[in-house]
């Protein structure tokens, strides 16, 4: 796939947001997917990447295929089949190479509330290996396992990726940036108690930042507590643009470019 630089223009209107991380197979979005796409148009969201978390996820969401809808194939660290390496390999092999399947994930490590990290290592490692072999970026889920995640990623020289829905430390953010990776921020950044997330968003360079919804979770203000959807990435983008004191249209252009470049995709206006 060739990355189109449609976002690089002297005239940066109209605004074009891209949601780098959502889960279109989850309810309530999956109950009325055409409404989801229409709401994206209304909020000037021109594309999205739907993320797999378990084996079989893409069987449903791939039926939504259109030019500016992309997919990541992977298995979440807390999925019950994370130790079944044969099934994970079969799942990855089935989908890698298909149109608009551009990334590996959501995968990684999660030590939250005493989760057993050791049983997650092999599942994460095989997904890292596939990302490295096929030269695909990886969508990282990381919680309470920063040192282990960095050590495993470093085994695969040159692998690129996204630290998604970032809520980690400043120290880990610097390590992620040192890897050459992107950092993505969700609606959490609009929450009143997210001061550290806002500090890190201000720190991350413009050429390394992405925005996301993680829909249907983590709806940003003013929709907090409600079901999230890709259209609401516009609120995240506008909030961070103001935080970084940059024009909204320019920030949309920058984050769109970052996504296109990392995923090596052609980005055009969402066709609904």
From TrEMBL:
Origin: domain of life: Bacteria
CDD domains listed in its UniProt record: TatD_DNAse (cd01310)
Stored InterPro entries: DNase_TatD-rel_CS (IPR018228), Metal_Hydrolase (IPR032466), TatD-like (IPR001130), TatD/YcfH-like (IPR015991)
GO molecular function: DNA nuclease activity; hydrolase activity, acting on ester bonds; metal ion binding
Residues the record lists as binding a divalent metal cation 2: 141, 164
Stored Pfam families: TatD_DNase
Keywords linked to the UniProt accession: Hydrolase, Metal-binding
Keyword check for Manganese: no
Binding site for a divalent metal cation 1: 21, 23, 106, 214
Family to which the UniProt record says this protein belongs: Belongs to the metallo-dependent hydrolases superfamily. TatD-type hydrolase family.
Protein name, as recorded: TatD family deoxyribonuclease
Species per Swiss-Prot/TrEMBL record: Candidatus Cytomitobacter indipagum
